[in-house]
């Protein structure tokens, strides 16, 4: 791959739309959209701040059991980098009202026949 395929504007726009759609679903606890945007496969991984989830079924169970309160957050330092037309990494920091802790989130997105999907994700909180 040549560097001219990194951050193609059309690809960045498509991934950005999917990323921010996911973010809106996350803070509004729209479980259907959250589920839609993850790859429906046993190889999907989500390493959370307090849980390690392997496969779409574990991710679905986590979402179903998660409280729907206190999900609002503010993103900062969001970086979306695309490689070719089918692969992207989205990294961001987030803060929540009432805490000084800084959260970090990184997602790997792949364009599949169904559209852009998260195939791996990591969420962590920095120490205060």
UniProtKB/TrEMBL annotation:
Segments forming a coiled coil: none
Domain of life: Bacteria
Pfam assignment, any one: AtzH-like
Residues spanning the signal sequence: none
Official protein name in the record: Oxalurate catabolism protein HpxZ
Organism encoding this protein: Pantoea eucrina
